[in-house]
What we know:
CATH superfamily: Spore Coat Polysaccharide Biosynthesis Protein SpsA, Chain A
Largest sheet: 9 strands, mixed
Order of helices and strands: EHEHEHEEHEEEHHEHH
Shape: globular
CATH class: Alpha Beta
Structural class: alpha/beta
Oligomer: single chain
Radius of gyration: 18 Å
CATH topology: Spore Coat Polysaccharide Biosynthesis Protein SpsA, Chain A
Number of strands: 9
Helix content: 25-40%
CATH architecture: Alpha-Beta Complex
Amino acid sequence: MKISIITxxxxxxxxxxxxxxxxxxxxxxxIEWVVVDGGSTDKTLEVLAAASRQPDILVSEPDKGIYxxxxxxxxxxxxxxxxxxxxxxxxPGEAVLSSVAKMFEDESVDAAYGDLExxxxxxxxxxxGKEKERFRVVRHxxxxxxxxxxxxxxxxxxxxxxxxRRKYYEELGGFDIQYQIAADYDSMVRYLWKHELKxxxxxxxxxxxxxxxxxxxxxxxxxxxxxxxxxxxQKNGLGLTTLLWKNLSKIPQFFRR
Length: 257
């Protein structure tokens, strides 16, 4: 089973090397890595060119943002299963994609997801003065077993830890780029709530995400995300109560480790 991993990147020279390393470390053999670069003006492409694990497919051209770039990647991917690796993220171990592949051995599974941890990084002088990133977990997102009705309470699986069979992206479409921040939430609601695909939960951390993403960068972004989330909810028969649940449900994630 080929797994396609899509990375959308723009001017991430500082983290792109770590993304290459985390891909190289995976012990699963049949991986296709699709990198869609938005026309970076820093050294992102140089980092990719020098890496031991280079993309199988690389496109570098201007785009309309991350969701447009991901849609391009979806159009290029050929694997049976598709997942994402954002340029600031990394896998917590070598066997993540092996674990995901095992989930899809069950042909009734349309999608699979796991847990996610947000980390903050600092650079310490290590051996011979070399700088190494050291990470501290600041938020643990434990997804829990799948129950479609939880969408009414604002639930969604963490998108970076979500995998789905490619045929459903082809049938149901990719990301709606009218949403600047909440296109991932829109896609989750569309695939799992509206079309009722069968999702399976893998109770382990599948992705480590650096803090500072666009959805929680500042108050303006948080307000915009809430507006977009509510638009998605209205479109799919979910109301204001769902929005309140969605925001409140995040609070325990900051206290669980």
